[in-house]
Amino acid sequence: MANIKSAKKRVLTAERNRIKNVAFKTSIKTAVKKVLELAKGSDKDGLNSALSNAYKLCDKAVSKGILHKNTAARKKSRLTKAVNKLQTK
Asked: Domains (ranges, CATH) in the chain?
């Protein structure tokens, strides 16, 4: 641990932010799993709202600096491709 008081504060702040970021990324993963589960069924309205929510979470993560914009775009693209593939079956 650092000796300087401000450095000690930064260590604590960084840990707090890391925990928040991990929680937010976990919520994105949960939203993606929910979309994929709904894509297997026949509930179109639920699927559209869940897909919209997953997109919203990805975009919010970009604006908060949790995800890079290309990472979010890749996640959204892969999710859309997976949903389309599941719906055609």
From this structure: 5-88 (1.20.58.110)
